[in-house]
């Protein structure tokens, strides 16, 4: 073939190709997307959970993928039988990094607030991590879907449970004060798990619109004067390993409140109203909120 004819043909093809790209700005993106979609997603099969919620969700989604869990009330007492055969990697603020690495996980789930540093160290070692903070009902659903996707499980059975937990919410509108601790007197605003739950069950959280003033997002310290000024119809007090409900009754203003005078003080466990530690604790706290609204 004539040399000039070959050069002309090549030039024509290049021109046509460039014209096509210029008139199809999505061409590169579409190709990249197609290539990415054709590449198999590597699912996690060896998961270490640093939080009770992470451990419980993986257990419910596919327990064969769960490699180790944190030590604590939920894993060692409440659901001891469920997690009896799994190694512990330390408590909330005392995680054993060496033990985690030795287990060779391909995914580690932890709390952004309490385990951020150790999650960053694991990232540096090339281990995939998920950091979470569950401050709303939507956060809980999103975390469940995210973890399910990472291990190739179906989140629908758990999501359906969540939906059933918030069905048939009674008309409410009663004012409530949630007291998390006595020294200082902490209470949640709307930007917290408990604050979001109260709204879902139509309680009027008297500290819902107040600005957080502690290192914990969504929580504020109240003065005696502020508590007396709110004078709520109901008071929810916490019980936990570190908080005795009887301590609230020793507060100097306690008997001056309408809720205490009308016997409208209710005890909730920290694991549920303040932190969703498992699917079961979420069910328990929603049942109690529903029942309390009727009293």
Automatic annotation (TrEMBL):
Asked if the Swiss-Prot or TrEMBL record annotates the protein with the keyword Signal, the reply is yes
Q: Which Pfam families match?
A: Peripla_BP_2
Signal peptide stretch? 1-22
Q: Where is the Fe/B12 periplasmic-binding domain?
A: 46-295
* Database matches in CDD domains: TroA_d (cd01141)
What UniProt keywords apply to this chain's record, in alphabetical order? Signal
Similarity field:
Belongs to the bacterial solute-binding protein 8 family.
User: Which PANTHER family does this one have?
Assistant: MOLYBDATE-BINDING PROTEIN MOLA, VITAMIN B12-BINDING PROTEIN
> What's the name of the protein?
ABC transporter substrate-binding protein
Q: Which organism is it from?
A: Anabaena cylindrica FACHB-318
């Amino acid at each position: 073939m004539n040399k000039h004819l070959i050069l002309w043909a090549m030039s024509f093809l290049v021109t046509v190709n460039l014209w096509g790209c210029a008139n199809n700005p999505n061409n590169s993106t579409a190709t990249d997307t197609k290539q990415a979609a054709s590449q198999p997603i590597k699912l996690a099969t060896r998961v270490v959970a640093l939080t009770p919620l992470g451990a419980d969700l993986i257990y419910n989604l596919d327990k064969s993928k769960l490699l180790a869990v944190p030590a604590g009330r939920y894993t060692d007492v409440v659901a001891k039988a469920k997690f009896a055969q799994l190694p512990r990697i330390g408590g909330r603020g005392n995680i054993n990094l060496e033990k985690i690495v030795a287990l060779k996980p391909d995914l580690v789930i932890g709390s952004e607030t309490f385990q951020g540093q150790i999650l960053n160290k694991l990232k540096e070692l090339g281990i995939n991590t998920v950091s979470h903070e569950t401050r709303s009902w939507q956060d809980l659903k999103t975390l469940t879907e995210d973890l399910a996707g990472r291990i190739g499980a179906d989140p629908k059975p758990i999501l359906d449970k969540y939906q059933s937990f918030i069905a048939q919410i009674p008309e409410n509108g009663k004012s409530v004060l949630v007291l998390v601790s006595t020294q200082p007197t902490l209470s949640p605003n709307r930007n917290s798990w408990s604050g979001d739950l109260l709204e879902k069950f139509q309680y009027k959280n008297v500290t819902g619109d107040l600005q957080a003033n502690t290192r914990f997002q969504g929580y504020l310290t109240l003065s005696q004067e502020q508590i007396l000024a709110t004078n709520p119809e109901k008071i929810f007090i916490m019980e936990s390993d570190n908080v005795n409900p009887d301590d609230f009754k020793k507060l100097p203003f306690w008997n001056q409140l309408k809720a205490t005078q009308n016997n409208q003080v209710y005890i909730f466990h920290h694991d549920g109203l303040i932190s969703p530690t498992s699917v079961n604790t979420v069910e328990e706290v929603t049942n109690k909120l529903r029942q309390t609204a009727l009293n």
